[in-house]
Amino acid sequence: MGTLKCLCCRRQIPANPRLKNQNYCGRPDCQRARRRAWQRKKMATDPAYQENQHRAQKQWQENNPDYWQKYRRNRQKPPPAAPVPQRVKMDTLSRNFLLISGEYLLSPAPQSSVKMDTLLVKISPVSRGWPSAKKDSIGISAAFSYDSRQKMSP
């Protein structure tokens, strides 16, 4: 008794001595793949089978003319409504605001209806002298906030 590799799942399985041309294992997904491969081959090579399948499909469509309308009506559900955007108050930093580097727990305000988990964030102020501080909006804000000589200009 030898082993074989399933053409679907690629697992090594013991070969069944009662099955002459076994290529698939007994798992349901593999058996489904085996039947699909057989039907595809049969449709490509057997004109009588192909004609029979077309005739059966046409007869089914005649017996169920409104199948797709019923299917869409029963299955299609409208997409969920978009969540209402929450109004968020963003306090601006004053010019003399002192921010100390470190790790902070960031959580929603108690009055907020937004449900979020608390986040651990690390805040590091960026000085005006940092080369890329002027290239992004966060760096620009930090440069404006921490440089008392800089004028607030857009």
Provide an overview of this structure.
The chain is α+β, with helices and mostly antiparallel strands and 154 residues long. It has helices spanning 28-45, 47-63, 67-75, 137-146, and strands at 3-5, 12-14, 102-106, 119-123. The strands form two sheets. The protein has a two-stranded antiparallel ribbon. Strands 3-4 form a two-stranded antiparallel sheet. Strand 1 and strand 2 form a beta hairpin. The longest helix has 18 residues, at 28-45. The N and C termini lie far apart (81 Å). The model is unreliable at 142-154 (pLDDT under 50).
Short descriptors:
single chain; 154 residues; alpha+beta; two-stranded antiparallel ribbon; two-stranded antiparallel sheet; 35% helix; elongated; disordered C terminus
Short description:
With 154 residues, the chain is α+β, with helices and mostly antiparallel strands. It is built from four helices and four strands. Strands 1-2 form a two-stranded antiparallel ribbon.
